[in-house]
UniProtKB/TrEMBL annotation, chain A:
<comment type="similarity">
    <text>Belongs to the peptidase M14 family.</text>
</comment>
<dbReference type="InterPro" id="IPR057246">
    <property type="entry name" value="CARBOXYPEPT_ZN_1"/>
</dbReference>
<keyword id="KW-0479">Metal-binding</keyword>
<dbReference type="GO" id="GO:0006508">
    <property type="term" value="P:proteolysis"/>
</dbReference>
<keyword id="KW-0812">Transmembrane</keyword>
<dbReference type="Pfam" id="PF00246">
    <property type="entry name" value="Peptidase_M14"/>
</dbReference>
<protein>
    <recommendedName>
        <fullName>Peptidase M14 domain-containing protein</fullName>
    </recommendedName>
</protein>
<dbReference type="InterPro" id="IPR000834">
    <property type="entry name" value="Peptidase_M14"/>
</dbReference>
<dbReference type="GO" id="GO:0004181">
    <property type="term" value="F:metallocarboxypeptidase activity"/>
</dbReference>
Automatic annotation (TrEMBL), chain B:
<dbReference type="Pfam" id="PF06907">
    <property type="entry name" value="LXN"/>
</dbReference>
<dbReference type="InterPro" id="IPR046350">
    <property type="entry name" value="Cystatin_sf"/>
</dbReference>
<dbReference type="GO" id="GO:0008191">
    <property type="term" value="F:metalloendopeptidase inhibitor activity"/>
</dbReference>
<keyword id="KW-0646">Protease inhibitor</keyword>
<feature type="signal peptide">
    <location>
        <begin position="1"/>
        <end position="17"/>
    </location>
</feature>
<protein>
    <submittedName>
        <fullName>Latexin</fullName>
    </submittedName>
</protein>
<feature type="compositionally biased region" description="Polar residues">
    <location>
        <begin position="18"/>
        <end position="31"/>
    </location>
</feature>
<keyword id="KW-0732">Signal</keyword>
<feature type="domain" description="Cystatin LXN-type">
    <location>
        <begin position="63"/>
        <end position="162"/>
    </location>
</feature>
């Protein structure tokens, strides 16, 4: 009799999860069929985000945190595991595709998510970090611009957003990475709306930039690191874009950046140069990286991915994998550093108190299984 | 009795912890740096960068003396050397990329301009070999934009002979019944059909003449795309091409459109006959029909 009730209990427990399990399986299949070594148009990226969330409900949730000029969703994926101790989670921010033509950047954000999904269960350190951190990934910020680059052969090299021309102009778009509230309009910009570094009519005038500032602004105290992904040039840029302003933790920013570059070189031998924009590229203002550092996020970097000019923004698809492999290692190097700095005693140690609700459920479940096996043998 | 066992087991497991739940220790507060705002601080430089700390502030007023090889002044001058080498030695089977700047030095030449001396490594892309070069780049500072002047000596630049391949390609094109034409090299996905690769390479060599001519200390040119390359009829030995090329200037982030007429033969190499900058194509940038 007892045997029957245990069997029933087991049956019920498995079947309540049946609907969600089916959804998970479907999502998993889509995820596994997705080709991360090809460039994808925006509708496929939106669908992929849905699939990846459905396939990994315990790890991933999504949020729409703003709308582009043309009214499209700006969507992020939040990667994180249930925090059993209930302490406050820290935040890592990563965005891709502020500049429409830099296709390798959104490709990398997708790759990054895929890598985390495929390794968090077996990689103890990663699993642990995901209990302490939430990683917010925006695969494409400049959705309008990205879609425009897919329209036809003559639009592929578009950089800016797709905002309407100002009153006295016929030229569309704003350079979103010159529009942030960070010494806006001071250097490395154009006030000509026809130019590719046009910084907009005022700081944060563009909805895409404002969406980032609003959303990250609510989490600034918990945010350890802000990474913004671009191409090309093989550079790791630290704040600030203004030649006469230095971040107070400049030395640490350099050493963490250099450590990342060292790791990246190990993968495929590619050199990534580390420095401020005025040192190794050009001075600029209004960048998202600068804004993040200015509001107090201690670590803020612009990654400029492959290559160094042979293909530039038209990076061939057979370069996607190696470019993403090295970029992943670089990003993870920085994420690991900022995590370990914030969670100094982050080794897996003994319990200090009773595990909370989810832990207890797990305990009950494994106990039931154990008892079932035992009683099964006894009967 | 069964129920009691379960409760006891549950309690025991709760005390010792389950391997799948990770422990959250006391977290230390994030070591955010002190308020980073508007206080300009001089950059503290460590290690080998200390040498250049005085140069840092002056960098945007043009660096002089020994240059940091990773910083933009040396890098921009070195890129000019790449374009120069491509114009002089480039072919459908020989193309150059800048691999590394080892050292650099800059000095003013009175009021006439600035001279850079560089030790660099260049990468020959097709044979995938790297070699060292010493070069000098002079940027004139005149009223109107003048091209830089370059001198370079590389160890064994022409070591790998491409004569046979070039001759074969030349014969193939000469004997073609139809005139060749190709567009969008590379295409949006970075792809180039193998049989049109030599046309892409020819377009790069010809474009290097423009990039060399247009370069200054405030530009960094790279090829973006050969939009169109079309073979034309000729009466003489040379092959002739009409080419619409897109160049990317990293500093302004602009795409510059140029039209080129050039000739090529293995004996003479690439010779540019005409070049003309095309206006920034405004009407190309209207949105397509649908969202």
């Amino acid at each position: 009799e007892k045997m029957k009730s245990w069997l029933l209990g087991l049956f019920l427990l498995t079947n309540t999860d049946l609907y969600t399990t089916h959804s998970v399986v479907e999502g998993l299949e889509s995820m596994q069929n997705y080709d991360y070594t090809k460039y994808h148009p925006m509708d496929e990226i939106y669908r992929w985000m849905e699939d990846v969330e459905r396939a990994n409900p315990e790890l991933i949730s999504s949020a729409v945190y703003g709308y582009t000029y043309e009214g499209r969703n700006i969507t992020l994926l939040k990667l994180g595991l249930n925090d059993t101790a209930g302490s406050e989670k820290k935040v890592i921010w990563m965005d891709c595709g502020i500049h429409a033509r830099e296709w390798i950047a959104p490709a990398f954000c997708q790759w990054f998510v895929k890598e985390i999904v495929n390794s968090y269960k077996t990689n103890k350190k990663l699993g642990q970090m995901l209990q302490n951190l939430d990683i917010y990934v925006t695969p494409v910020i400049n959705v309008d611009g990205y879609i425009f680059t897919w329209a036809n052969n003559s639009t592929r090299l578009w950089r800016k957003s797709r905002s309407l021309p100002p009153p006295d102009s016929t030229c569309y778009g704003v350079d979103l990475n010159r529009n942030f509230k960070a010494n806006w309009g001071t250097i490395g910009v154009s006030f000509d709306s026809c130019e590719n570094t046009y910084c907009g009519k005022s700081a944060g005038s563009e909805p895409e930039a404002q969406a980032v500032m609003d959303f990250v602004g609510t989490m600034v105290n918990q945010t350890l690191c802000f990474l913004t992904i671009h191409s090309a040039g093989q550079l790791i840029l630290l704040p600030y874009g203004h030649p006469e302003i230095s971040a107070p933790n400049y030395n640490e920013l350099v050493s963490v950046g250099q450590a990342a570059a060292v790791e990246m070189k190990k993968v495929h031998g590619m050199n990534y140069t580390v420095g401020t924009s005025p040192q190794i590229l050009y001075p600029n203002s209004g960048s998202s990286r600068d804004w993040a550092r200015l509001i107090g996020i201690p670590f803020s970097y612009t990654f400029e991915l492959r290559d160094k000019g042979e293909f530039g923004h038209l990076l061939p698809e057979d370069h996607i994998q190696p470019a993403c492999e090295e970029a992943y290692v670089g990003a993870l190097s920085i994420i690991t550093y900022v995590h370990d700095k914030a969670f100094k005693n982050s080794a897996v140690t003994t319990v200090k108190h009773f595990t909370l609700v989810s832990g207890f459920t797990m305990t009950i479940w494994s106990t039931i299984v154990a008892v079932f096996v035992t009683t099964g043998f006894m009967v | 009795m069964g129920l009691r066992i379960i409760v006891v087991l549950a309690v025991l497991m709760g005390v010792t912890g389950s391997p799948t739940t990770t422990v959250r220790p006391e977290t230390t507060s994030v070591d955010t740096a002190a308020h980073p705002n508007s206080i300009p601080e001089t950059a503290e430089e460590t290690g080998q960068n200390e040498v250049f700390s005085e140069e840092e502030a002056a960098e945007d007023v043009m660096a002089t003396g020994e240059l940091n090889p990773n910083h933009y002044p040396a890098q921009r001058a070195a890129k000019v050397v790449q374009h120069y080498l491509t114009t002089r030695y480039g072919s459908p089977y020989r193309l150059f990329g800048l691999h590394r700047v080892h050292s650099g030095n800059a000095e003013d030449v009175g009021d006439s301009g600035r001279k850079y001396q560089l030790e660099i490594s260049v990468h020959e892309i097709i044979s995938n070999t790297t070699q060292k070069c010493s070069a000098e780049v002079f940027f004139p500072h005149g009223q109107k934009q003048e091209s830089p002047q370059v001198q370079a000596s590389c160890e064994e630049l022409l070591n790998i002979s491409t004569k046979a391949q070039e001759e074969a390609l030349y014969q193939q094109y000469k004997m073609n019944q139809t005139l060749l034409s190709a567009q969008n090299l590379p295409d949006s996905h970075g792809h180039i059909e193998p049989d049109v690769k030599p046309l892409w390479h020819l377009g790069i060599v010809a474009s290097s003449f423009i990039m060399l001519k247009e370069s200054s200390e405030n530009t960094l040119y790279n090829m973006a795309q050969v939009a169109n390359i079309t073979q034309l009829e000729t009466e003489n030995e040379q092959l002739k091409f009409d080419c619409h090329t897109l160049l990317h200037d990293m500093v302004s982030q602009e795409i510059l459109h140029w039209k080129l007429l050039f000739a090529w033969s293995p004996a003479e190499g690439v010779k540019v006959l005409q070049m003309e900058q095309l206006p920034h194509c405004q009407h190309c940038e209207k949105p397509p029909n649908t969202n």
